[in-house]
Amino acid sequence: xxxxxxxxxxxxxxxxxxxxxxxxxxxxxxxxxxxxxxxxxxxxxxxxxxxxxxxxxxxxxxxxxxxxxxxxxxxxxxxxxxxxxxxxxxxxxxxxxxxxxxxxxxxxxxxxxxxxxxxxxxxxxxxxxxxxxxxxxxxxxxxxxxxx
Length: 148
Description:
Elements: H1 2-15, H2 19-26, H3 42-57, E1 65-70, E2 73-79, E3 85-93, E4 96-101, E5 119-125, E6 129-136, E7 141-147
């Protein structure tokens, strides 16, 4: 009987450890808990923007020219098979890619509006590829992996 009492006391004390660690492990993450996004180095910034443009436009990353123009912003350009040229700006906000077409309304009209009204493109960087997902506001989604 004495051994049973000792065992109950030991298990009772073991269970009374620091409850904060358990609470933190099961706590749901909210937007206030998410740390500020890590700034991408130019190489990764170009990789994710080229991969995003290729994914969204059905292009090969090899045919997309890219250069960093501002902090966390890339200028992209490619020529379609029919000879039509396209230019975009790409910005990275956390793990979200946003694009805007240049001269969308005609030559000399400048940048259009930033994407994000009809879909949201998110990414995850891997050593040799980028995982991408488009979430559309109708609830559908599209995902893929671009090797780059």
